[in-house]
Amino acid sequence: MNLKSSENDMRERSSFGSKFGAIAAATGSAIGLGNIWRFPYVAGENGGAAFMLVYLFFVIVIGIPMMLSEFSIGRYTNRNTFGAFRVLRPGSKWYLIGILGIVTAFVILSFYSVVAGWTIDFLKESLVNGFAGRSSAEIKTGFDSFVESGWRPVFWTLLFVAATAFIVVSGIEKGIERYNKILMPLLFLILIGLGINSATMEGFREGMSFLFKPDFGKITGSVVIEALGQAFFSLSLGMGTMITYGSYIRSRENMLTTAGSVAVSDTLIAILAGVAIFPAVFSFGISPTSGPDLVFITLPNIFQQMPGGYVLSILFFLLLFIAAVTSSVSLMEVVTAFCTEELKMKRRTAVLAISLVLAGTSTLCTLSQMPDSPLKIAGTNLFDFFDNVSATYMMPVGAFFIAIFTGWFFGKNRLRGEFTSGELYGTGLFPFFLFLVRFIAPVVIAVIFLSKAGWLKL
Ligand code: PHE
């Protein structure tokens, strides 16, 4: 059976349409809170430069090949992540990867919406100049009491869920993605500005050596697993987003440059965020191991002391919010595509149902941050638990099976056809790619897991 449909026979999945710029969509999904909020805080907790080095290694050796694998599966089958495995291996259990992806999307969306809600609150505070004249300690207490206040952050979280749902229903191509092409470079420019501003801070040297001068002794098992998880999280891998988006890549388009440019811009934004944040962290006496609060207690300090900070902080939080929406939209699209194609639901009904469930789970995540909240799993509040479990467990496990599937079950000729876009590009690189997905990616992920579980001593 030839599953490959022609370009004009694109399945009606959403209002993306075939004109949809694959690079813009995939970049919009990849760049988000993962780069600016999660990367600095996870790097800060895991020794800085040592983490960064391992992270970069994983992006190149596992991230890019995995992105190409997901694109290939998506483009070949033209289906949602569940349907893709079902049609490729009918009657097998491979569709479970799709189910895992859908659950992962929900888990990520639940805490992602909370952090995205914070960006809206910070946008509002920036507009009214609410951070002005506050000391670093006051900013921290202010943030803590906001997060712990319960219903105020819930309001923003729900607003963000509604915004995501609105865009998924009304069409991504027509709306935000078009602006994304202008707005993401703007975010990039602001980050460069913040980076330059960092050079004027007293903590500049300390911040830079924290980020770029690795102490190899700090590369422990948990640093490695956190770096792997962050690479998957930041590149939106291991749960089907890039399978879903891969189906919008036209058959003659060069996937190598698509995956390459997504990975390069995503990584650059993360590194720039680090350069903007860490000098300030050391200048203002904030602990690099502050956890998920890190960026939110550091940024107001930066904007307050820099020239033009008032306008820049408004612009920055607005762009961060938009970056977050283009990522959450891609997460919701994974579930929506499943509901419309497999469960034959109407798009509107599907989005409504998804949003209602999400409103519940994201509210629980927000409330779990109140002091004495009983919303805990294994001693950790729901927000931290979801954040941890998705990146360190669910995405690597998903990626492991996607790698095995692509390398061993997808079919070598089909894979070559997708990888080279019908022998148009990169034929010489194919054996190298095949080696990475067949052996390196699954073995590395498995070894990291076995050592984490204590079954393997490294
Ligand atoms: N990559 C996004 C970010 O960095 C988050 C995301 C994860 C989006 C998984 C889609 C799928 O913000």
User: What percent of the residues sit in helical stretches (DSSP H or I)?
Assistant: over 70%
- Per DSSP, the total helix count is 18
**What's the number of extended β-strand segments?**
2
Strand content: under 5%
CATH class: Mainly Alpha
CATH superfamily, by name, is Amino acid/polyamine transporter I
Radius of gyration (Å)? 21 Å
Which whole number gives the mean pLDDT?
A: 91
Overview of the structural elements:
With 458 residues, the protein is mainly alpha-helical. Helices cover 72% and strands 1% of the residues. Strands 1-2 form a two-stranded antiparallel sheet. The chain is globular and about 65 Å long. The N and C termini lie far apart (45 Å).
Architecture blueprint of SSEs:
Blueprint: H1 22-30, H2 33-45, H3 49-77, H4 81-88, H5 95-127, H6 136-147, H7 151-170, H8 176-198, H9 204-212, H10 221-234, H11 241-246, H12 255-283, H13 294-305, H14 309-341, H15 347-367, E1 376-377, E2 380-381, H16 382-409, H17 412-419, H18 430-452
Helix pairs in contact: 1-12, 1-14, 2-10, 2-12, 3-9, 3-10, 3-12, 3-16, 3-17, 3-18, 4-5, 5-7, 5-14, 5-15, 5-16, 6-13, 7-14, 7-15, 8-12, 8-14, 9-12, 10-16, 10-18, 13-14, 14-15, 16-18
The structure holds phenylalanine.
Phenylalanine binds next to helix 1, helix 2, helix 10 and helix 14.
